[in-house]
């Protein structure tokens, strides 16, 4: 609820507060319902509006921020600049990379209402031979990039990444349409621009400094690109900026009890950050540092207790995010934790992380316990806080020198030649100046411009404002990380995104805040020029992205191609198709964006009549998506589409060169008829591939086979489904007859196209029956269907002969058919009374 006596700018601040309350409640409700499998975008939004309304009511008398408020004109200008460089967003449906996985996750959540993903095609294949073929061609090399198979021979799958960002895209898709999900990213990019402005304003009190900070982010080429490229760095940045902004609001209010809501909003913002990106563990040292600094420096007891509770709450939310990740994204979480902490603790990283976490908690709790009096606070400030503040600048300088030395080792020595990642994968070892361009330090220069120099210099100097000093510690920590740990960017702009959530925006923010606090003089003048030149440079670099849309048109091409395919149909994709885009890149959107069943097939399994027939029996229609313009046997062409994959060329500069990354024409074929395989028994059970032959007079298929129903039954065969062999085809049938002591015989008259060809009689103690029907070439060449009839004069119900309560009239239980090349009449006589021919 917005108070009527507030000024326009105060109302804007209040609207931002309520907007974040709605975003946080939407995030929580959306994620919970998606995990529970009951996600509905409209209902989530309406419920979160109710929650935000309740929040507005209970905070209606508590005022807004205690110092300078946002200027609505600044926010309008920043919004226009932000959207100018960020529209349209890239609807990146192609699989294989993180951005495609996120978009396909969102489509899956919007379509199914949950995050659960199963290999439903695998679940249809209950035959061991079919399963073996399927697993070999669909699981041996992994299921799909970004989709884990939890067990090789089971149906359970798991999306790789955390789910909150896909949930937000699913919300936008549910509200505005299938192609609008990616505009959730545009929304969060705007939100991050607004909140970096608001954070700068809260800390500096200068609207000009806030406007410059917001403008630097609004025109930044790295932020502009990833505001359209659907990965999680921009949403994570929005949540972290909101969290720090509300923390600054609390600090600005000097710990007033009415401002406790800012801490709750801050905690919730960081909680959403932790379930957006797995890298939340990198924030924990800074959360502890803030709480320890508060315990040492804050004289107000309420403020100290509140900051203690804030730190505890953020850590609890992070612990919950770890549990969430291990529960719903376990394989990915385990891999990331191992890869991240092995850099510090080698193969003993679980013990190292546990010891470091215990030490951090002990230091925090010990600091809180020993600073309950002002004299103790003074001592801790003198002997702990001041030395730490002094050493930050030294750490930055040493880290920069070490980072430069590592770049020299990479480019001009053999130090990293054995490194599989840097040498064998990316060929950076010994690459000289390419190694410089592929460094995080160079990428920071590319995406911040010459103001980077002013920022690095500022990091080496202590700041009088404790809030700016905390930002100094935060920016310095991530700069050290970029120098020593994540110190290479194999190619841009894709891998440069690791500099986006913290390094680039917070370094720019810190530099502007230092500039705002400078006295007039040459240093401020020089920094002003650096800021101006950098802003102009960034705007020019971002302008190079205008009019270039990655993955443009691909969604429409796939939608047109898959239009004939229904949700109960099956799409086959040949695994050996050369050239980009890869088979997995196309398979991912077919599965999760369009919700169609897909199975990889090799060329050999495509010619395996039994395998294809079994698949055909389990789905309504079978289609083949292929790059070959030639129709495989039994398939007819349905349509074709030329796929074009547009994208920015890999470069160590900002995104500017736009290229056609891949192009190929794909053909969609429909299986017109299955082919009966030679020498492979085909069942007439519930999963029988040839149950369509059961034309009339048959009961429902059962697990063992199918009973005739009544005194006459017919099989209807399409000769084009029979294998082409010289001399014709011999169909060998296995069956049972219904006989008992009360009904000891069954007579069977077999006809072919209405002509009697043989009679059989089964009598106790026999019940099994095997017979052949020979189809000569002359019969196979005749137009129309082949009708094999069975006259069954002795059909009887099991109920009538005391064999149970089944009242159906049964006689012949058909189990299987096997096709063989036809044999000569002479040789046929060697199998007494089992050969029937069409003569």
Automatic annotation (TrEMBL):
<feature type="transmembrane region" description="Helical">
    <location>
        <begin position="495"/>
        <end position="516"/>
    </location>
</feature>
<feature type="transmembrane region" description="Helical">
    <location>
        <begin position="432"/>
        <end position="458"/>
    </location>
</feature>
<keyword id="KW-1003">Cell membrane</keyword>
<feature type="transmembrane region" description="Helical">
    <location>
        <begin position="15"/>
        <end position="34"/>
    </location>
</feature>
<keyword id="KW-0472">Membrane</keyword>
<feature type="transmembrane region" description="Helical">
    <location>
        <begin position="391"/>
        <end position="412"/>
    </location>
</feature>
<feature type="transmembrane region" description="Helical">
    <location>
        <begin position="528"/>
        <end position="547"/>
    </location>
</feature>
<keyword id="KW-1133">Transmembrane helix</keyword>
<feature type="transmembrane region" description="Helical">
    <location>
        <begin position="40"/>
        <end position="58"/>
    </location>
</feature>
<feature type="transmembrane region" description="Helical">
    <location>
        <begin position="307"/>
        <end position="326"/>
    </location>
</feature>
<dbReference type="Pfam" id="PF02366">
    <property type="entry name" value="PMT"/>
</dbReference>
<feature type="transmembrane region" description="Helical">
    <location>
        <begin position="195"/>
        <end position="219"/>
    </location>
</feature>
<feature type="transmembrane region" description="Helical">
    <location>
        <begin position="262"/>
        <end position="295"/>
    </location>
</feature>
<feature type="transmembrane region" description="Helical">
    <location>
        <begin position="349"/>
        <end position="370"/>
    </location>
</feature>
<feature type="transmembrane region" description="Helical">
    <location>
        <begin position="470"/>
        <end position="489"/>
    </location>
</feature>
<dbReference type="InterPro" id="IPR050297">
    <property type="entry name" value="LipidA_mod_glycosyltrf_83"/>
</dbReference>
<keyword id="KW-0812">Transmembrane</keyword>
<dbReference type="InterPro" id="IPR003342">
    <property type="entry name" value="ArnT-like_N"/>
</dbReference>
<feature type="domain" description="ArnT-like N-terminal">
    <location>
        <begin position="187"/>
        <end position="323"/>
    </location>
</feature>
<feature type="transmembrane region" description="Helical">
    <location>
        <begin position="161"/>
        <end position="183"/>
    </location>
</feature>
<feature type="transmembrane region" description="Helical">
    <location>
        <begin position="231"/>
        <end position="250"/>
    </location>
</feature>
<protein>
    <submittedName>
        <fullName>Phospholipid carrier-dependent glycosyltransferase</fullName>
    </submittedName>
</protein>
<keyword id="KW-0328">Glycosyltransferase</keyword>
<keyword id="KW-0808">Transferase</keyword>
């Amino acid at each position: 609820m917005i108070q009527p006596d507030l000024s326009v700018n105060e109302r804007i601040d209040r609207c931002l507060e309520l907007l974040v309350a709605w975003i946080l409640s939407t995030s929580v409700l959306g994620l919970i319902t998606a995990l529970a499998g009951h996600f509905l975008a409209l209902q989530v939004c309406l419920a979160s509006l109710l929650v935000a309304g309740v929040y507005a009511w209970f905070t209606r008398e508590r005022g807004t921020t205690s110092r300078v408020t946002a200027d609505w004109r600044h926010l309008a200008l920043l919004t226009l600049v932000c959207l100018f460089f960020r529209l349209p967003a890239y609807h990146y449906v192609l699989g294989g990379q993180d951005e495609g996985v996120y978009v396909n996750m969102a489509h899956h959540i919007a379509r199914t209402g949950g995050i659960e993903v199963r290999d439903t095609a695998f679940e249809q294949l209950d035959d061991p031979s079919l399963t073996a073929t399927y697993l070999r061609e669909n699981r041996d090399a992994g299921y799909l990039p970004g989709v884990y198979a939890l067990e090789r021979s089971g149906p359970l799958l798991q999306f790789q990444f955390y789910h909150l960002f896909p949930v937000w895209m699913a919300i936008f898709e549910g509200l505005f349409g299938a192609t609008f999900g990616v505009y959730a990213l545009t929304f969060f990019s705007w939100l991050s621009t607004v909140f970096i402005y608001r954070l700068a304003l809260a800390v500096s009190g200068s609207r000009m400094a806030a406007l410059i900070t917001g403008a630097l982010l609004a025109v930044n080429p790295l932020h502009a690109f990833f505001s359209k490229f659907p990965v999680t760095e921009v949403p994570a940045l929005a949540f972290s900026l909101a969290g720090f902004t509300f923390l600054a609001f609390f600090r600005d209010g000097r710990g007033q009890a009415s401002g406790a809501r800012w801490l709750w909003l801050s905690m919730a913002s960081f909680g959403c950050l932790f379930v957006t990106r797995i890298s939340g563990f990198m924030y924990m040292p800074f959360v502890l540092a803030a709480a320890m600094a508060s315990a040492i420096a804050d004289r107000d007891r309420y403020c100290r207790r509140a900051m203690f509770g804030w730190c505890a709450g953020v850590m609890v939310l992070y612990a919950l995010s770890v549990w969430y990740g291990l529960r719903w994204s376990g394989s990915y979480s385990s891999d990331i934790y191992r890869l991240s902490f092995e850099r510090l603790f080698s193969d003993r990283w679980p013990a190292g992380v546990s010891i470091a976490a215990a030490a951090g908690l002990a230091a925090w709790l010990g600091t809180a316990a020993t600073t309950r009096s002002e004299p103790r606070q003074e001592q801790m400030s003198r002997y702990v806080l001041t030395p730490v503040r002094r050493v930050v600048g030294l750490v930055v300088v040493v880290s920069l020198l070490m980072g430069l030395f590592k770049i020299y080792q990479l480019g001009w020595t053999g130090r990293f030649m054995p490194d599989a990642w840097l040498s064998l994968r990316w060929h950076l070892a010994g690459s000289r100046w390419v190694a410089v361009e592929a460094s995080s330090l160079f990428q920071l220069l590319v995406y911040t411009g010459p103001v980077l120099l002013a920022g690095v210099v500022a990091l080496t100097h202590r700041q009088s404002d404790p809030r700016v000093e905390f930002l100094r510690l935060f920016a310095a920590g991530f700069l050290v990380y970029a120098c020593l740990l994540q110190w290479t960017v194999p190619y841009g702009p894709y891998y440069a995104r690791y500099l986006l959530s913290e390094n680039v925006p917070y370094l720019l923010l810190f530099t502007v805040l230092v500039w705002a606090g400078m006295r007039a003089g040459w240093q401020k003048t020089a920094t002003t020029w650096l800021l101006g030149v950098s802003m102009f440079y960034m705007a020019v670099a971002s302008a190079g992205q205008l009019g270039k849309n990655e993955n443009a048109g691909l969604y429409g091409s796939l939608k047109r191609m898959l239009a004939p395919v229904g949700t109960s149909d099956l799409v086959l994709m040949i695994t050996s198709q050369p050239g980009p885009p890869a088979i997995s890149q196309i398979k991912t959107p077919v599965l999760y964006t369009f919700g169609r069943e897909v199975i990889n097939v090799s060329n050999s399994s495509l010619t395996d009549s039994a395998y294809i027939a079994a698949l055909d029996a389990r789905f309504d229609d079978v289609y083949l998506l292929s790059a070959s313009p030639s129709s495989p046997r039994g398939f007819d062409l349905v349509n074709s589409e030329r796929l074009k994959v547009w994208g920015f060329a890999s470069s160590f500069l900002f995104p500017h060169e736009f290229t056609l990354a891949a192009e190929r024409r794909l053909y969609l074929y429909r299986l017109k008829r299955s082919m009966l395989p030679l020498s492979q028994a085909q069942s007439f059970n519930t999963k029988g591939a040839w149950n369509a032959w059961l034309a009339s007079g048959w009961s429902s298929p059962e697990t063992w086979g199918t009973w005739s129903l009544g005194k006459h039954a017919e099989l209807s065969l399409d000769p084009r489904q029979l294998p082409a062999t010289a001399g014709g085809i011999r169909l060998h049938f296995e069956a049972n007859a219904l006989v008992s002591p009360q009904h000891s015989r069954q007579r069977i008259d077999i006809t072919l196209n209405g002509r009697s060809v043989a009679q059989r009689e089964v009598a106790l103690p026999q019940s099994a029956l095997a017979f052949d029907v020979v189809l000569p070439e002359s019969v196979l060449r005749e137009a129309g269907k082949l009708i094999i009839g069975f006259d069954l004069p002795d059909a009887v119900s099991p109920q009538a002969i005391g064999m149970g309560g089944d009242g159906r009239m049964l006689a012949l239980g058909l189990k299987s058919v096997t096709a063989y090349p036809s044999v000569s009449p002479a040789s046929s006589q060697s199998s007494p009374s089992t050969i029937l021919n069409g003569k």
